[in-house]
Amino acid sequence: MISLDSKLELVRVHYRGATVRRRARVLTGSDGRFPTQVEIAGLPLSLDDSRVSLRADDDRIVVTGVRVSLHIKPRNEVIEEPNTERLKELRREIEVHQARSRQLELEIGMLESMEVPERPEPEEGQAPPPSPMTARLALEQFVNSSVEERLATLREARKELREMREEQAAIERAVTLLSSSKTARADEITKMVTARLEVEGIDLPDEVVLVLDYTVPGARWAPQYQCRISKLGTSAEIQMRAVVCQASGEDWRGVKLELSTADPVLWTDLPELSSIRIGKAQPQPAAIKGFRPAPQGASQLFSDFDRDYAVVRRVVPSPAAWTPPYVQAPSAPDLVDSAPSVNRMSDKGGYARDHEAEELDLLCEPTPDAVASYAPPPPPAYAPAPQAMPVPMKEAAVPRRQEEAKMKKSAPPRPSTAPGGAGIGRGGEGFGGLPSEPAAAQSWAFSKLRLRSFDDALRGKLNPVDVRSAYLEDLGRSHLNVGFDVLSLVQTAYSRALEVLRLGLPSGSSDVRQAAGWFDYAYQSASCVDIPADGVFHSVPVDTREAGCEMEYVVVPREDPSVYRVASLHNASKGPLLPGQTEVYLGGEFILSTPLPTVAPGERFRLGLGVEQAIKCARNTHFTETRSGSAVVATAELWHEIEIEIANNLKREIKLEVRERIPCPDTDAEVVVEEIAGDVSPPWMPYDQKELNLELTGGRRWRVSVPAAEKMTLKAKYVVKIYANNELVGGNRREA
């Protein structure tokens, strides 16, 4: 097995999830042989095992047996074995020195408590008794010399004790370091893809590039834009940006980015429509190749094997039951020897089983005589986990075997692990407890299927393997102790990646899936980008495209005399512009931020740029009311004149759109509104405002060109006719 170094090349971010592409080089060995088994490690734990593909860029190389497993990077440091015998000896010597020190401290205390007797007091009227000065001095000298001697000995003992404790601490650190070097850490575990390479033909390639694609769930994106318009408004460019968030577990550094609106797990295909012809009958077309169910009666293939196997088991004598020898239990556990060994895994969670449990399994296995028919025996039930601390075999071996056998017989039946089941493995905690897999990992890959043993009830069918057992089997090759649940570690990474999908989009952003509708498109970044796996939105550039620009001006003097700038842009790219927040710059200065609607390829769209202070607009109206005659049915004519004056103070000609509105009576109203066509200068045209999805009745507009530093006057006139004895609601004057 050759380990290959891979490099991130491309990341395709979908509206939910991402597809990552890596490239790895395979070279022919110095012996002239091409590698047959390769592995690519360092992949994130959130990787979807069922959506991994590996291919070669050379047609002569066939990639087979692709599977995903767990991997721990080999540790190159060589740790010297600590001297455990010296550690035991130090512990004994430390106990001796501690006892000696306590004895010296006790003796010093006793000596210091000795007092020289004072001279006795004389009786009244008599001479004082003689004082043994020599004896008193000798006693005081004896106490002082004895204390000094023991203090010197105590200082030496404490010095030796300190040195021995330092040496003990150094050896214990070495033991701890050795133990940690043989124990796997959760942050060291990554996923790995292994595959077999087969060369078709005689010529061996010198170099082959393998392309690895895999899917991770925790990624999303939304579009943003920057529109930069020239000062005169004659040209513009649109820079598409994207806010990307990902928590896949690996940083994307220096990768090409593709932003797609498609669903990475949704398969779509064009339907094949059958042709219908009028005329002579024609034979039915050939059936389309696809999935076909397995042939019926496949279980009959095992009948001959079951018959012969049962005969052999009746003829061959059964081996005698093996009784394990008696081993005297140690009186007290050794602190050094109780450390976990190199090849032993923790019993918690069913990762490993000790020798005693294996012996119990052997004793509880059914004998060959138990087979009484040609049918295969039912699948064996699972035994509970052994205790963590072993008990003396002399006292508890036989009762424990009986108890284990009873529990094994009464264990609940093993749930089905067929692909259509509710989950993988067995629920619950302890040995064999297996939580359900992520939803995205329920689609089974062929590498996750195995054929059962001949004595299994599900033999002859591909069945999914236990994920935890498969992961632990892969980690067992590293010869490290695994003291945690690897499946929970993988599920935690998967759940942490899914938290990205619950984040709210930045202000002004929209969901790309809803914006794209039934059509999907992928945007490619023009340069490499960096996106860390921190679960935070990062703004990255995608590409910059030129857009034809025409500056227009719009005014609605009936509502507001301000003249507004509007840039009419053209989407000249082949892809659509999805809705998103747009930062608009005019002549290098930031003007405003506005939402951009969905723009199809080749379509024109407009961006408002605010008020143009250099263009002035004034609206004046005139009203007169006349009577058409003196008859009973005489009518009142309400004449309205509109006069709009435009002053262009810019140094260039402008295109101005002036919007107006005249009254529109209801269908059953006894009111008539007539435009005086000869008095509208220049002529205007109807305006329904459908581009804003707000239909307008009675709308009119002028589209004129105003030269630089000149003025223009627009005039319009209409009349409202009503019966003379009537009056309009709100007054006859329609224009203020």
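The above is record 1. Record 2 follows with the same two-line structure.
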Amino acid sequence: MADLLIHNMAPIMFAALVVFLLLGYPVAFSLAANGLLFGLIGIELGLFRPDFLQALPERVYGVMNNDTLLAIPFFTFMGLILERSGMAEDLLDTIGQLFGTIRGGLAYAVIFVGALLAATTGVVAASVISMGLISLPIMLRYGYDRRVATGVIAASGTLAQIIPPSLVLIVMADQLGRSVGDMYEGAFVPGLVLSALYASYVFLVTLFYPKAAPGLPLDAIIYKDPNGKRGVISLGVVVLFSAAAAYLYMRTTGVRAGADFVVLTMSIGVGIAFLIAALNRLLRLRLLSILAQQVIFVMVPPLALIFLVLGTIFIGVATPTEGGAMGAVGALVLAIMKGRLRWDLVRQASESTAKLSAFVVFILIGARVFSLTFYGVDGHRWVEELLVGLPGGQTGFLIFVNIFVFLLAFFLDFFEIAFIVIPLLAAPAEKLGIDLIWFGIMLGVNMQTSFMHPPFGFALFYLRSVAPREPYTDRVTGLRMEPVTTGQIYWGAVPFVVIQCIMVALVIVFPGMVMHYKGTGPTVDPSKVKIEIQMPDIPQLQFDQPPRIQ
């Protein structure tokens, strides 16, 4: 029995952890208890010395001293303030009016706003709950299929998992030992592509099942000009003019194409559009329609916040932690400008931030205890030999790892997977020559499914908490509405889980979507580096006469 334990300590230890988690014990305590228990067993079996555990206090201190993790409370606080200040409500109302008359317009609006909220909040719970409370009643009121409505809301909320400033990407960068800024730049394009795939699915639904996602009737449109027209054309002209002017300006400055180029171009374009809208309102020029003005004024604050956070990170002015701090301050300023900053709001956001931060830190401490023992019994070597020896080289490794993480996501959330599994996968991936930024973003998209997996997906739980459970009377139409069942929420999530899996495949097949991060910033060709050392003039020493000794 002792020989069996000695030769198979690592797999037994990992299996015991899975058993603890399946029994429902808290993750942090399961990790720490497993590490200490098998540490004592290892000492008894002579696998390592008792003083091996003396490194534990230093590891715990290392968690508390980790500057990268400081970004988590900043971005969490920013997201909660924005969610409670009504920004999501204003965005969904205005963008819903913009897309409303098109079939599936409300669904497009939810996806668009979900991407914007993801780029400003980085918190899945805030996005899903906000859109569930605001958009779901409207979608049900105008006859949306319940599966389509709930699936779009849940999936759009999970965009906060992959679009910067995502908390997942911060944790992934920390666990992989890579830059958070590089992780953000690499994830920028995949996040936009995933949003486009969601919109493409809605488009297909409107083609084959038009009644599942109808457009808003004209009498539901609020923003109209005195002549009764919506004035969408004027908005399109302003957007195209602003985008063209910003693009030409950025091209003349010589900024390389990349995430920083996109963010800076967008920021300049938004500034030009805002200037036009402001002049139109102040001078009463009537260049823009009422709808165009409303869209521009509602869109500018979140887009300005995106530049404040992501723009400063991408151009190298601020670190992710500093960007998060500026974002938190910016969120408070926006709440003040809207007149919605109250002490209760700040207190609730602070308490929720403290809870989430403590949750992350305790899991990380437990993971440190577990990994100390796991590495002590050469568990990392066991994992490396197991994965590196898979048939197919890099391709076989990536297929196995993605299937493994996908199955784990049925039972674990992304924090647990990131702290337990990712550190074990990093060494084999690096040994196989896989770029860890690309690898981390690929797994980030994969772990996004953990929010959407029935029956334990957290996004589904968040939506279930705000969706109507009982028949209710619509406050606008006065009609009696049927409730949203849990089965409808689960079935609505399935197509989007498939889309997320397709996105994982696209990241594998087209690595350039991520690897563009290497092309940003100044580059140096090593073959053209010339080192010249100029020798100083040293006067010659004269030894014609022997030294005189006194």
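The longest strand covers residues 472-473.
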